[in-house]
Amino acid sequence: MKFSLGKYLLPTYVFLTFLFLGIPIAYTFVFSFNDSIKSNIIWRGFTFDNWLNVCNQQDVCDAFANSLIIAVSATLIATVLGTMIAIALVRYKFKFRSATNLLLFLPLATPEVVMGAGLAAQFLDFGWPKGMLTVIIAHTMFTLSFVVVTVKARVATLDPALEEAGRDLYANPAQVFMKITFPLLLPGILAAAMLAFALSFDDFIITQFNSGSIDTFPKFVYTAAARGIPPEANVIGSMVFIVAIAIVVTVQVRSSIKQRKLAKK
Amino acid sequence: MSIDFGAGGKDLELVGLRKEFPGFVAVENLDLKVPAGQFFALLGPSGCGKTTTLRMIAGLENPTSGKILIGGKDVIDLKPHERPVNTVFQNYALFPHMSVIENVAFGLRQRKVDDPMVKAQAALDMVELGHMAERRPAQLSGGQQQRVALARALVNRPALLLLDEPLGALDLKLRRQMQIELKYIQMEVGLTFLHVTHDQEEAMDMADIVAVMNKGQIEQMGAPEKLYDRPKTAFVAKFLGQSNIFVGEVSETNSEAVSINFKGNKITAPVARSEKTTGKIAIGVRPEKTQFHATKPEATSTNNVLGPGEITDIRFTGVSNQYLIDIPEIGEIIVFAQNVGKSPVVELGAQVWVSWQVEHSFGLADLPTGKEDA
Predict the structure, then answer these.
(1) Torsion over CA of A138, A139, A145 and A149, rounded to 10 degrees?
(2) Domain boundary at B199, B227, B255, which?
(3) Start and end of every ABC transporter domain (chain B) (predicted)?
(4) 3-state class of B246 per DSSP?
(5) Identity of the residue in A162, A172, A265 whose CB atom sits nearest the CB atom of B93
(6) N or C end of chain A: which has fewer CB within 10 A?
(7) Is the minimum CB–CB distance between A237 and chain B shorter than 8 Å?
(8) ipTM of model
(9) Mean pLDDT by 10-residue block, N- to C-terminus, for chain A (265 residues)?
(10) Which of A93, A154, A158, A169 to probe the B interface (max B CBs under 10 A)?
């Protein structure tokens, strides 16, 4: 009998890959239940305390709140701006259009260290104190390109005849945007917003350069790692992971139910 | 803002309408009048400027110069949503995120008409899709989508309905069926229809008036029978059906008839059916007006005779046969003969003469360039 490579090797390889990806997450999750005393490295027994009293460790919760405020603000600004830029780039011909296109790709290609340092120098130059505002500006700047690229792909697939049909059916430009363009772009805009949020929420390098004394969650974890991360950080990390997975699963289930409904009719 | 909606259709007048794009002129000084309540077809090959004309009337394209009058009122400064015009788009452009009935009710809701859903349902019933109101456009077939697009435009009772090749994406059988329905609906609602198409059969079948457009200009305009019977230019003669066209210097002319010398043969047309009677002119005849004969027919003052030539191709098309006859020194002539059972039995390679009545000849204003078939 011939030894079948595909039959054993491929599943083993896939299993090991997922194991490799999953171990750190599983570790974080498991140790969020650790009844730790000083450092959260050795397993000392199971407890729900960390989950029930996350904000006992005040600085963890503050850092998490800061990260949320920054991520939400940057996402909102970058999504609104980026959507407008994306529509303009696809639909309108204007001076410096190709230059704008090129400039938008630059932040995607620039190393974060360079961008973070450059922004820090800029803020210093302006005499702006580092803090929440400077981080939000920095995050808006680097997530903007991702939003534009994502939304642009969606705009490109939108048939201009649909907007023309709206104008033909007595909708003024603002109504056409609200009733036709925006609903049809919404999936792309939501995807872009989620991407921007994720990028902003776990950014460390650019934040480190521009945040001054403000602590964000990634910054807190980094600093804490030197002396042992408190289990509350594991709890927050696990929660973020669970929320992200829940969103993905909900979206998938919803769209598959919708598809089945359509197929039935 | 109030839009002036006529109870029935309104007339449309284009005066010196012109559209230039960078590098080319799409529409050249177009003058056109569509009477109220008529089914008007703008017929032409792709790239002739017919869709651009339609888009200018809808307000989706700004003319370089000229006037657009709907019911006598110039609408040139009105935005698309302010014009009493609705369009059935080429690929229907149904809103994919709305149900069928929401699509149809869209225009009514924009104008805050009473009972939009009731009226939309009635419009859907008219196109026999009342039972599909809750579906999404993606769940409908091409023909059904086409009818929804029609209902969505018609429900607004526009003064003028624009149709941009609305049947182009349908297969032949469905297209013929929709042509009949469309014509029926137009007669029922009494609105003015402006239909843009490149399908000459479709235009002749449905329209009260056909305007043949070429290179941004109207070549000829009139009732389909008139256009077919007496095309005035080589383009119309070739684009609207088929024609045999002969070019020669005028050899004889009197008050009744004009004759040309076509490579040694005399071909005559009535003066009343000729655009030009001097110099080098083109005379044409429709293939179904010609006959072929096994023996040479006698040439008289009332007929034209060419031949002998050889039959090089026979095509059976059902109701008629198409014969291609190659006459040495003269070229190829197309003859259509109906399959009525008694037609002369001919075979490929047979030697025949071709004749037709002088009264069926038509004299053109221009000479064929050889590119009309494109």
Answers:
(1) -170
(2) B227
(3) 12-240
(4) strand
(5) A162
(6) N
(7) no
(8) 0.82
(9) 71 93 91 81 83 81 92 97 94 88 88 93 92 94 94 93 95 95 94 94 93 90 81 86 90 85 65
(10) A169
